[in-house]
UniProtKB/TrEMBL annotation:
<keyword id="KW-0175">Coiled coil</keyword>
<dbReference type="GO" id="GO:0051225">
    <property type="term" value="P:spindle assembly"/>
</dbReference>
<protein>
    <submittedName>
        <fullName>HAUS augmin-like complex subunit 4</fullName>
    </submittedName>
</protein>
<feature type="coiled-coil region">
    <location>
        <begin position="299"/>
        <end position="326"/>
    </location>
</feature>
<dbReference type="GO" id="GO:0051011">
    <property type="term" value="F:microtubule minus-end binding"/>
</dbReference>
<dbReference type="GO" id="GO:0007098">
    <property type="term" value="P:centrosome cycle"/>
</dbReference>
<dbReference type="GO" id="GO:0070652">
    <property type="term" value="C:HAUS complex"/>
</dbReference>
<dbReference type="InterPro" id="IPR026214">
    <property type="entry name" value="HAUS4_met"/>
</dbReference>
<dbReference type="Pfam" id="PF14735">
    <property type="entry name" value="HAUS4"/>
</dbReference>
<dbReference type="InterPro" id="IPR029327">
    <property type="entry name" value="HAUS4"/>
</dbReference>
Length: 366
């Protein structure tokens, strides 16, 4: 791929970013980083043709696979040997445990199990006293015992020989029972089938278990890929969520005053409506108080008093208007008439006073 082709692909296809991210899952790079750095993205596209998902080159990976295959083969060989010995040892121990659980068995089997148990016990003690066959440790000093002292506790040679001749048959029977138990656990519906059919299916059990193991490993790999994809999508989601939060903050800061003005206007309308409602309620209360205070008779009397007062007010207003007309006519006559009017008022006052004095004198005289 040339540089020009890589740049064109970067500009034309967004899926290329996803391919680059899938080629380097261990690299902490986002799609935004690739978009902002096209040259770096082009470099990753070129490197993806020479490296695998773990970062190894093609030649190093081939050499590593070759070494790994040899090591894996050796490991599997050692593992098979160890598993063969371990299975045999555990099977013998299980046979001994079954003997202790049953407590009743034929004499020949009882002798076989006793001999086998003594042989296993002596072998375990010898291994504990002389671990040089399996480790580099020095033989421990336990009560002055040596492996040779413990080997003297072995059963008689004829019993051991008889045990070795009969053991394969009993061991095969025990392993067969365990395999049938495993088969029943793996497929419970096969438990009611015949013995021959169970034996045939038991021969295919290892293949079925291998298929299940392969399927489990495949599902594990799929789960790993889904986990990485989920992590990447979570990062993208968080990034987009942060952008949305920033946009919301901007909207809040830009439109807060406008929204506050609208809210204040609505609040003012609400308070005005509430004030009008309170006023109407007060008026209703006043009317109710008036209805409770004034009876129909008192209202009728008040209405008559009001009519009389209004008529008297009307007469007073007419007298006032007449007096104002006379006063205006008197003011037109000037200052000389004012002096005559004052003299007239004085004379009338004197006449009034003298009439009062005459009336009092006449009253006293009588």
């Amino acid at each position: 791929m040339t540089e020009k082709t890589a740049v064109n692909m970067l500009g034309e296809s967004d899926s290329l970013h996803q391919q680059v991210l899938a080629s380097f899952p261990l690299c902490d790079v986002t799609e935004d980083d690739l978009t902002q750095n096209p040259q770096f993205c082009k470099l990753l596209v070129i490197l993806a043709k020479h490296m695998d998902r773990t970062g190894l080159t093609a030649s190093l990976k081939a050499e590593l696979e070759k070494v790994s295959a040899s090591a894996e083969q050796n490991l599997q060989s050692q593992r098979r040997q160890w598993l063969h010995t371990e299975v045999l040892h555990r099977s013998l121990q299980e046979m001994i445990q079954d003997r202790h659980v049953r407590k009743t068995e034929p004499p020949d089997q009882s002798m076989l199990h006793e001999t086998m148990e003594k042989c296993l016990l002596v072998a375990e003690c010898v291994r504990q006293l002389d671990p040089s066959d399996t480790t580099n440790q020095e033989p421990p000093f336990v009560l002055g015992l040596t492996p040779q002292n413990v080997k003297e506790l072995m059963p008689a040679d004829k019993d051991v020989q008889r045990m070795r001749q009969a053991l394969p048959k009993h061991l095969e029977k025990h392993l067969r029972e365990k395999c049938l138990t495993l088969l029943s656990y793996y497929q419970p519906e096969w438990e009611s089938e015949s013995e021959g059919l169970k034996t045939v299916k038991m021969s295919h059990l290892s293949g079925l278990l291998d298929k299940e193991k392969t399927r489990a490993e495949s599902l594990r790999g799929t789960c790993q890929e889904n986990r990485l994809l989920l992590q990447r999508q979570t990062q993208l989601y968080i990034s987009e969520l942060i952008k949305c939060i920033q946009l919301l903050q901007t909207l809040i800061l830009d439109h807060r005053l406008k929204i506050q003005t609208d809210l204040d206007g609505k609040k003012l309308d609400y308070l005005e409506g509430k004030c009008q409602l309170v006023l109407q309620k007060l008026k209703a209360e006043m009317v109710e108080v008036q209805l409770d205070t004034y009876t129909p008779d008192s209202i009728s009397a008040h209405r008559k008093i009001r009519e009389k007062l209004e008529s008297e007010l009307k007469a007073c207003r007419a007298d006032k208007q007449t007096a104002e007309l006379k006063l205006s006519s008197f003011e037109m006559l000037g200052e000389e008439f004012k002096a005559l009017a004052e003299e007239y008022c004085r004379l009338r006052s004197e006449i009034k006073t003298k009439n009062w004095a005459l009336k009092e004198f006449t009253h006293v005289k009588n």
